[in-house]
Amino acid sequence: MMSRFLIFGLLLTTCSIAFASDPSPLQDFCVADPNSPVFVNGVVCKDAKLVKADDFLFRGLHLMGNTHNDVGSNVTSVTVAQLPGLNTLGISMVRIDFAPWGINPPHTHPRATEVLTVIEGRLLVGFVTSNPENRLITQVLEKGDVFVFPQGLIHFQKNIGNGYALAIAGLSSQNPGVITIANAVFGSNPDIDVDVLAKAFQVDIKVVQQIQSKF
């Protein structure tokens, strides 16, 4: 009887792992068809006979993004939305440009692990483990260093140099998603009740209202 339960448990674990990431391709490719009226978990495939080389091509990742904003960074995404050929392949990438002392603010990718490499500059990076430990894992990265941010954990990057910095990151989903913590908490539509946030952050309601006004 115990062996049956063990086998059943292993099967459940295997199934949960199998369904925890993007669907595996069942053909050579499944180029996304954004114009399809059909709604599925992912993106509908384009007719393979209509697929062209351009469906697998993205140009312009060598171009620096505009970092003239409040956080001093810019993320250029290459997901299935920009590169249809990524559909069902379970991978995407981003270019992150940083102004001097700019940050990529605390955020999370609900559907992907991120592996980042520094191309230019020095970055302070880190992620926070889940409750109840909430341990900060942090490191200073130099040019050529690689760092991984586990799926779903809050993480950040900060340029700690006087010059511009550049990083490239790969993500383990065609559509990793991003939730920027400050924007989600203080810039939701409609606003989260100020009393909820005041109690959560242990601050006065006026402080919450002031922060919400910035988003």
Automatic annotation (TrEMBL):
Keyword terms: Apoplast, Disulfide bond, Manganese, Metal-binding, Secreted, Signal
Domain Cupin type-1: residue ranges: 59-209
Binding site for Mn(2+): H107, H109, E114, H155
Subcellular location: Secreted, Extracellular space, Apoplast
Region forming the signal peptide: 1-20
Chief location category: secreted
This protein's record includes keyword Disulfide bond: yes
A GO molecular-function descriptor: manganese ion binding
Keyword Kinase: no
Family: Belongs to the germin family.
Protein name: Germin-like protein
Organism: Helianthus annuus (Common sunflower)
